[in-house]
Specification:
GO terms for molecular function: GTP binding; GTPase activity; metal ion binding. GTPase that recruits MYO1E to MHC class II-containing vesicles via the effector protein ARL14EP and hence controls the movement of these vesicles along the actin cytoskeleton in dendritic cells. InterPro entries: P-loop_NTPase, Small_GTP-bd, Small_GTPase_ARF, Small_GTPase_ARF/SAR. It is built from five helices and six strands, in the order βαβββαβααβα. The chain has one domain: P-loop containing nucleotide triphosphate hydrolases (Rossmann fold), CATH 3.40.50. A six-stranded mixed beta sheet has the order 2-3-1-4-5-6, sandwiched between helices. The chain is of the alpha/beta class and 191 residues long.
Length: 191
């Protein structure tokens, strides 16, 4: 994990939204991927923007937007340029899972996210009582809501980094495929 080299500097960056409720672990995921170090974070007020370079792919600009209730309406303001969505779920917070499901469904209804790939991180798998990836998939109705796009639910622990390398690889694969499809459609529209 950590910062990987980008071999082709002329490739356009891709933009990824990193969303989820407050305390889900979004910023911890972001900084673990970027620096491969442990970070102590608090819920983000506003947003964090970081660029992560990946091997054999374009740099990824990640928009980590605060998940407090007052911040969630601003999520849609960042959708227009998004090439992908990473949605982080606190797999232990059963009290707020319905809220998280509702926000997930709402953000997927944004017209700018219509075909973008979705990666759900079922975070905090190290904690007792954490729901597994299958539980999250079922509760979030991912098969139904994401049937027309690439999607995956990855169990992880942002604190230890477990599952994040797999999540990064899956996201990179999705982004490459999405970019190729989008570029092909744009090419044919020009003709």
């Amino acid at each position: 994990m950590g910062q990987l080299s980008c071999r082709n500097r002329n490739v356009k960056q891709v933009h990824v939204l990193l969303l989820g409720l407050d305390w889900a672990g979004k910023s911890t995921v972001l900084y673990k991927l970027k620096h491969a170090q442990d970070f102590t974070t608090l819920p983000t007020i506003g947003f964090n923007v970081e660029m992560i370079e990946v091997e054999d792919g374009p740099p990824i600009t990640v928009w980590d937007i605060g998940g407090q209730e007052k911040m969630r309406p601003t999520w849609s303001l960042h959708c227009e340029e998004a090439d992908g969505l990473v949605y982080v779920v606190d797999s232990t917070d059963q009290r707020r899972l319905k809220d998280s499901c509702k926000e997930f469904k709402h953000i997927l209804s944004n017209k700018h996210l219509k075909n973008v790939p979705v990666l759900i991180l079922a975070n905090k798998q190290d904690a007792p009582g954490a729901l597994n990836a299958e539980d999250i998939t079922r509760m979030f109705k991912v098969h139904k809501l994401c049937s027309s796009r690439s999607w995956y639910v990855q169990p992880c622990c942002a604190l230890t980094g477990k599952g994040l390398a797999e999540a990064s690889a899956k996201l990179t694969s999705f982004l490459k495929s999405h970019r190729k499809t989008r570029d092909t459609l744009a090419f044919f529209k020009q003709k």
